């Protein structure tokens, strides 16, 4: 266990020409084998996955998956259970090695690198569960998150306390005594100790009451305002897309639709097939 991580067949497709037009904006774009991927849009991306196959043991989960994250964006991955959303994050973070395809950070190949090396590159990861050390205090959790820093740890922790006062007030409390929302804030702060410019977040609202979830989504936006691009998996489709710049709908390990939140939420086919509409 590293100090940076306390946790670790195609259906028929719709062509882009068949994608219904969403009211009030650009249509959601459907992907199939003839649809141009967004690789050409990823030249300036901070993170880009291109043609990625990945999985667990002999079980393939991701199938020719291509997506990207631009500087300063929040991008949300949505779709049915088992679509491969969390596997995207684990592959990007080095917890899984891609079988095929590339994972690039600022144009440099990082696919297959160890998670601790990816953290040093500038990517943070907040898993859905086991994302803090319950037996350690808030202060100790933050310091564990910064063991790879070469200096400036006290200063960055002070800035994080300023950004997230709720953990400042409880800095000597054991993490196991925190509420679900407070633990999530600590997990964000812990991942930010290394000052990443990309943060991968897996279902930040999972298991939280609605009011607490709203607070956590506000914290996600606060993290984004710290010049951190965010690739997020979220079960609450409306809330997740509501704070995002773009979204991807995944199914069976590949991108089925992509577009703005408005386009995805207004698209009848996307809503009925994938978003519970």
UniProtKB/TrEMBL annotation:
The keyword Transport applies. Keywords: Amino-acid transport, ATP-binding, Nucleotide-binding, Transport. Residues 47-277 form the ABC transporter domain. Residues 1-39 are annotated as: Disordered. GO terms for biological process: amino acid transport. One of its GO terms (molecular function) is ATP binding. It holds the Pfam family ABC_tran. InterPro entries: AAA+_ATPase, ABC_transporter-like_ATP-bd, ABC_transporter-like_CS, BCAA_Transport_ATP-bd_LivF, P-loop_NTPase. SMART domains: AAA. PANTHER family: HIGH-AFFINITY BRANCHED-CHAIN AMINO ACID TRANSPORT ATP-BINDING PROTEIN LIVF. Belongs to the ABC transporter superfamily. This is ABC transporter ATP-binding protein.
